[in-house]
Design brief:
Layout: H1 9-25, E1 31-37, E2 42-46, E3 52-55, E4 58-61, E5 66-67, E6 76-83, E7 89-97, E8 104-106, H2 108-111, E9 119-120, E10 124-126
Parallel strand pairs: 7-8
Antiparallel strand pairs: 1-2, 1-6, 3-4, 4-10, 5-9, 6-7
Length: 129
């Protein structure tokens, strides 16, 4: 059975700030890619600079990225990958509805994209990172 890991607030803040620093350090802009069920479902967005801040033990992404690659197949996003400006994966997180325990909680329209429709995300929070 997996046991959760608990960090003191100062350690959590430092870990999350390290993620922000990695995202900001690349040669280009950071990106987020959403993938889903089925696995062919994917979409990505370029994140603005600065892209995030750490506040109250949460990673808060700034701006309004646009999910640019329309979903090619119907389905639901279940995972997100953060890439730094060099294209290296920095973090992989669960994605789910607003009332879930997922790391990224999205409204229904963003969670279930439709072919040909870009999705605008408001500022969003990574929970439990």
């Amino acid at each position: 059975m997996k046991e959760p890991v608990y960090y003191p607030q100062r350690v959590k803040q430092a870990r999350l700030q390290a993620v922000v620093d990695l995202l900001e350090a690349g040669n280009g802009p950071a990106m987020i890619e959403f993938v889903g069920d089925p696995p062919e479902l994917s979409s990505s967005a370029t994140l603005p600079r600065p892209c995030a801040r750490v506040e109250g033990g949460k990673l808060i992404f700034l701006g309004t990225p646009i999910i640019t690659g329309p979903a090619q197949v119907p389905g639901t996003f279940t995972k997100a990958r953060l890439f730094d400006g060099n294209g290296e994966v920095v973090m992989v997180m669960s994605v789910g509805p607003e009332d879930s325990n997922a790391c990224i909680r999205l409204p229904p329209k963003a969670l279930n994209p439709r072919f040909g429709i870009g999705v605008m995300l408001p500022e969003f929070v990574v929970h439990g990172a």
